[in-house]
Amino acid sequence: MPSLNKVIIIGNLGSEPEMRFTPNGNPVTSFRVATNRVYTTPEGERKQETEWFTVVAWGKLAEQCNQFLTKGRLVYAEGRLHTHIWEGQDGQKHSRTEVIANRVTFLDKQAAAPLPEEGVEEAVPDELEPEDIPF
Asked: How many independent structural domains does the chain possess?
């Protein structure tokens, strides 16, 4: 029977990406992405929830994420969910769910990026600045 494990998130980086290498020399980069959900309670109060995701990229994608991503950047990450389960030194079971990325798109323009050619519109509006992020 067919099955599917796919997740797509769009959010802002909460910290700088961390790149490391496996013993075989394969690059792996991980970074945290925050997504926000704004809703109104039945009492009419407006609330915001922030959900954090750990995204892990491998190979060439890991190198690109490490080179171009910085705290506050808006990103689109697509991949699959993977849960690690382990037993701690205290005997307690622990788990962590990560997004194993197969695609990461940088959605905002970087300050050092060249200006678009005249008459060409930018693909993504420049709405959110890193200073606007509440963390």
From this structure: 1
